[in-house]
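SAMPLE LOG
Freezer: B-3
Tube label: C17
Construct: single chain, 306 aa
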Amino acid sequence: MMNRMLRREKGKATMARKGVQYAVLDAFTNSPFCGNPAAVCLLGGEGAEKDERWMKSVAKEFNLSQTAFLIPESDVSGGRRFHLRWFTPMAEVDLCGHATLASAHFLFSSGLVGGNKVEFLTRSGVLTADKVEGFKSIDGQAEGSFAVELDFPVIPVVECSAFDIPSIPTTLNGATISSIKKASTDDLIIEVMSGNVVKDIQPQFDELEKCPGRGIIITGAAPQGSGFDFFSRFFCPKLGITEDPVCGSAHCALAPYWSKKLGKHDLVAHMASPRGGKLVLQFKDDRGRVLIRGEAVTVMEGSILV
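STRUCTURE (predicted):
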């Protein structure tokens, strides 16, 4: 009898511990276990008091390329405003596309944001996300689906100095390099002859980790008939991300880069990692912004109890 009572009381105590609500979503896809997974943690009440050390520990526990932390701030015209921070398993970052898309999708799909717009206060300024109804999804199905459109700052791309030229012969496996540029994020952009080369690359992470800069973006023009304008892959082992499956923020540099090369402002990009993902882009040259549109799907929900 006493054991049953103890178990009952323990069960009640466990139920009372709501903890911090979280969800894991796959971004830039409408299929589970594709695209780029991100954890989204909603802090509020006691959760708002969680410090940076706790956030870093949670990000290490999830061990995904990005974990996002949301703190509600206020209502704004047509939506809500949240503070948003992003952490890799090793460090906080200034900008992340897929975890922002996942955060917005989580807020829209859970009903926490009633309108079609949400604003995020971040280390990169105010970022907006709009809910786009009836979006034609990757598999061609439009009914009942929605996408999220992010309004992000352009990342300038400059010429690469001789000191920045990477040596990754095993990774490239003899592929011809068309050009090497450098983003202001300290990521190197290596253009190869075709998107098929990008897709077939076998990354050697010890080689990539020794390269100058923060990370390596390898990109190439998409094959004719693929429905895309360019392919890319992003490697950042220095931040604990061997390969970021679908990196939204990299396209803040890639959109203006390919816009200039192809002479167009509307682009469709494919990240050719094993998980893959699709990004619909619009380069707003006059505003210095890139609109990044994509889908997401929730694959896991729960609470963090510590």
